[in-house]
Amino acid sequence: QQQVKQSPQSLIVQKGGISIINCAYENTAFDYFPWYQQFPGKGPALLIAIRPDVSEKKEGRFTISFNKSAKQFSLHIMDSQPGDSATYFCAANSGGYQKVTFGTGTKLQVIP
Amino acid sequence: GAVVSQHPSWVICKSGTSVKIECRSLDFQATTMFWYRQFPKQSLMLMATSNEGSKATYEQGVEKDKFLINHASLTLSTLTVTSAHPEDSSFYICSARDRHTEAFFGQGTRLTVV
Fold first, then answer.
1. What is the CA radius of gyration of chain B?
2. Nearest CA distance, B72 vs chain A (angstrom)
3. Which of B6, B51, B110 is facing A97, going by the closest CB pair?
4. Each residue's pLDDT tens digit in chain B (114 positions)?
């Protein structure tokens, strides 16, 4: 059962552009929504995270937008750079000791 | 952020042998550790969750006798792939958390069974 759906599967953006990745979840018990960045051959690294009591969170060039009623959230990368080229995973969990459920991943390529 | 160290980074073993992967939390006490498996160009699939001092809880479809998990201390968990076969070749990733933080991930272990 895919509890967190992610799109697009791959994305090509020109340097300086905005990268947008979308996710949707089903389980209303989820209360923590992190985004991870993974480079080839490395483990995922936490990029930014949000809880459903806010609709937006911004950290530098990265912004999460959250729509609780629609059960959707998205990652926006402003002024995308070639160094941002990686695979991005949205995720969700319900806090405490609960496991993290990952989306299917988006491979981002930022071209000069 | 907190540091989770995984060892080895890569390992090649012969079919039928066993291989052990270690996951250590270096600067915090990991009350819970998670083991994931990732195939090329795919997402991370949770294999099992372990709480320190307790038996691991395996996800549906994961053979607990094949993937032995030990979480004997608050800073160390091990995953042993027993009688490995080529289809076990994959990227294995651990993550760890304490009671107050999100999970932090290790750098992963590339297992190749020949």
1. 13
2. 18
3. B51
4. 679 999 999 999 999 999 999 999 998 898 899 999 999 989 999 999 998 888 899 999 999 999 999 988 899 999 999 999 999 999 999 999 887 777 899 999 999 999
